Task: structure prediction
Amino acid sequence: MIHLRTSWQQVKILTHANMKARYRKTIVGFFWVVLNPILMYSVQAVVFTKILKLDLPDYYLFLLGGLLPWIFINSSWESCITSIVTASPILKSFQISPLVILSSAILESFVNFIAAFIILLIPTLIYSGTYSLNLLLLPFSLLLLILFTIVSTSLLATLHVFYRDVKYVTQFAMSILYFLTPIFYPESFIPENFRWIIHFNPLYILIEPFRACIYNGSTPEILLMQLKGLVLVSVLLLIFNKFWSKKKNALFLKL
Result:
């Protein structure tokens, strides 16, 4: 318990220091971070509703529920996969766990994600006039999304210490998965004989229950999707624990 409390204090201190350094000498500071997802969302919403005229009810809510979680996962992977290698001087000089460095970077991404999501969700809900009690299930979907991001990022970052190709493979995979995951289009657009593919897509498994909570999802369906997400996170956690227990002693030798 004491060790966890100390680690959490280290995570908070590092996150605060990183965010303070990032926004130093900027005029609008934190706004620059949330501006990127807001612009991506706004541009895609206009393109698909006004130009391509995608016929989908409350498309703004649909896009918001898929795009923002995707940006959170993608930005976390992008900024955190190399964080252990980048922080090697700190890890060698101080008694600090590599997982603290990772958790700090993920927490920073999460703060940015939550800020952008709230800024966009409230006016989008008001504009659409669509409210559902399924919003009460949103915190659990959010928790699964965070846990998945933490576990998957930790696994990828640890692998990257031993195999530097992981960074490039992940970037390549995310570029492809963006179009193979129903982010800006519904699952119904995929031919039935190919839909089984996305059901094995881990990003879809985590993003879809999140979106269903704010967009046209039934409560039993959401609970079933959340259960699948919990199973996925549990499996990833077991894989990471097994890999970490074998490689943690050799980790510092590879930095």
Observations:
- Residues 19 and 25 are 12 Å apart (CA to CA).
- The first helix runs from residue 2 to 22.
